[in-house]
């Protein structure tokens, strides 16, 4: 009875089509059947997938930072300005009328304490005479620097919130971040105002970026541009994963490779700022090289990994723990390491005092040693001295280098000797253009110089004619001087 009715309404071909369609739908899996039963979305949530809830939580704690500094310039520069002959008579001031100009820069920052403590990059506020912080609601405050740490490229600022509790970002555990995690970057690119970009964590433990001494960056493809420095890299829980600090670029804009300082290092620096205003880090006291495939094969390791120790500082924490040359450090406190920067980073996050376990491969065995967490020692004392007397080095400021002082100056803690800190404009050796800050005085008239006392004693007996050797950037420069005008260097 139904078939003739259907035939009358739809025609025989249509009825046959409905029958075939019904058979096909019954043979499809449930997901495809559900797809065939599409319905009009019944709520906003069914229409939109959005980062908006995360942004609303995090964005109020991200601020814009504006800095200003006064730069002295000269209206005219003589073509003879760099000529040593003219500098000898006229000094470094030869060349024009000094003038002042205002240099401005911008960046971003993150509020990490409700009373107005803000973290940003060191390079954002470096050399600034005035720092202004603009909140997300456009209110502006003058900021003071309570800690500036060039070693990590971080700075901690403080604004007077006038008793108001400001929105903050909580720290995430950056050691738990994984490649592929979704992230958002919030900052003030090019000064256009607060901007949010999205991406993923592209890589971890990047150590060859060369923007800070403690290099262990989170890499992201979220668009990061000039002005984003100091801004937040956040996860999908709205917590702070890192501080955006650098980009890889050939044009000045984003190419999808940005780097952020991990939140654990940021938290360490902020805690140091609030507990005395000084960063005190433990040191390891050993240095080495990454284990390559060739090294792994020669040592009997089944795969590359770890750091082969080739030098240990006497009586350092590594020495006290019993580490030896030829050992391979595999992990620090349970965290795998693949290059010396990783060791430096993980040790640098520890508090002074106590010990941490270090897994070591030694002669086909894996052992664990406990390394004490101690600050680098100042031995010998720095003994900063401005040399005086009737000799070529008069007016030169020098000091003894120790592990502690080397770390303070941003040098390798394995550097030793007498370092040149400053060369006074009136110093005879400055007029000859031989010596520069950062040089090491290696010897005077053939006598090796190991301390400032050695240098002063050697200079007393140097006479008008002297020879000396400087160490600069890993090479030695031998010089001889007669009087104060005739000299040679090779």
Describe the structure.
The chain is of the alpha+beta class and 490 residues long. The protein has 4 domains: 2-36; 54-279, Thrombin, subunit H (Beta Barrel), CATH 2.40.10.120; 286-372, PDZ domain (Pdz3 Domain, Roll), CATH 2.30.42.10; 385-489, Roll (Pdz3 Domain), CATH 2.30.42.10. Helix content is 22%, strand content 34%. The protein contains 14 helices and 26 strands. Strands 19, 20, 21, 22, 23, 24, 25 and 26 form an 8-stranded antiparallel sheet that branches. It is globular, with a radius of gyration of 32 Å. The N and C termini lie far apart (113 Å). 33% of the residues are buried.
Sequence-ordered SSE layout with sheet pairings:
Blueprint: H1 2-10, H2 12-27, H3 30-36, H4 44-47, H5 52-58, E1 62-74, H6 84-90, E2 98-113, E3 117-121, H7 122-125, E4 130-134, E5 140-149, E6 154-159, E7 182-187, E8 195-206, E9 217-220, E10 232-234, E11 240-247, E12 258-262, H8 263-274, E13 286-290, H9 293-299, E14 307-312, H10 317-320, E15 328-332, E16 335-336, H11 340-348, E17 355-362, E18 365-372, E19 385-386, E20 396-401, H12 403-409, E21 417-423, H13 428-432, E22 440-444, E23 447-448, H14 452-460, E24 465-472, E25 475-482, E26 486-489
Antiparallel strand pairs: 1-2, 1-4, 2-3, 3-6, 4-5, 5-6, 7-8, 7-10, 8-9, 9-12, 10-11, 11-12, 13-14, 14-15, 15-16, 15-17, 17-18, 19-20, 20-21, 21-22, 22-23, 22-24, 24-25, 25-26
Helix pairs in contact: 1-2
């Amino acid at each position: 009875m139904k078939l003739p009715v259907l035939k009358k309404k739809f025609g025989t071909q249509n009825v046959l089509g409905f029958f075939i369609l019904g058979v096909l739908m019954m043979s499809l899996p449930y997901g495809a059947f559900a797809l065939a039963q599409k319905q009009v979305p019944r709520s906003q949530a069914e229409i939109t997938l959005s980062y908006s809830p995360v942004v609303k939580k995090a964005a109020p704690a991200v601020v814009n930072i504006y800095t200003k500094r006064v730069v002295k310039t000269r209206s005219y520069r003589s073509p003879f300005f760099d000529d040593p002959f003219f500098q000898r008579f006229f000094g470094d001031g030869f060349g024009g009328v000094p003038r002042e100009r205002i240099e401005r820069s911008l960046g971003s920052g993150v509020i990490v304490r409700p009373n107005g403590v803000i973290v940003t990059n060191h390079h954002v506020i470096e050399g600034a005479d005035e720092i202004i912080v603009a909140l997300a609601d456009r209110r502006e405050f003058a900021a003071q620097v309570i800690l500036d740490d060039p070693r990590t490229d971080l700075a901690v600022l403080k604004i007077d919130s006038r008793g108001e509790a400001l929105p903050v970002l909580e720290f995430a555990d950056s050691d738990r971040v994984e490649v592929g995690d979704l992230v958002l970057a919030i900052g003030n690119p090019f000064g256009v105002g607060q901007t949010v970009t999205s991406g993923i964590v592209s890589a971890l433990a990047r150590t060859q970026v060369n923007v800070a001494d403690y290099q262990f960056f989170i890499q992201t493809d979220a668009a990061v541009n000039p002005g984003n420095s100091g801004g937040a890299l956040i996860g999908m829980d709205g917590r702070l994963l890192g501080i955006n600090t650098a980009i890889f670029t050939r044009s000045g804009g984003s190419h999808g490779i940005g780097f952020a300082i991990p939140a654990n290092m940021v938290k360490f620096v902020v805690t140091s700022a609030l507990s005395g205003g000084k960063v005190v880090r433990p040191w390891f006291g050993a240095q080495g090289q990454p284990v390559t495939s060739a090294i792994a094969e020669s040592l009997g390791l089944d795969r590359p990994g770890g750091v082969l120790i080739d030098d240990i500082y006497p009586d350092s924490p590594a020495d006290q723990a019993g580490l030896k040359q030829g050992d391979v450090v595999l992990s620090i406190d349970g965290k795998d390491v693949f290059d010396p920067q990783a060791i430096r980073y993980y040790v640098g996050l520890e508090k002074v005092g106590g010990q941490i376990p270090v897994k070591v491969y030694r002669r086909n065995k894996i052992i664990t040693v406990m390394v004490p967490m101690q600050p680098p020692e100042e031995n010998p004392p720095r003994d900063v001295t401005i040399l005086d007397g009737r000799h070529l080095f008069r007016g030169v400021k020098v000091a003894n280098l120790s592990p502690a002082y080397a770390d303070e100056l941003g040098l390798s803690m394995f550097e030793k000797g007498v370092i040149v800190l400053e060369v006074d404009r009136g110093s005879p050796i400055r007029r000859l253009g031989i010596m520069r800050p950062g040089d090491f005085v290696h010897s005077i008239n053939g006598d090796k110089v190991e301390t400032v006392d050695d240098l002063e004693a050697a200079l007393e007996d140097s006479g008008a004619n002297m020879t000396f050797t400087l160490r600069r950037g890993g090479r030695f420069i031998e010089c001889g001087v007669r009087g104060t005008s005739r000299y040679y260097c090779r």
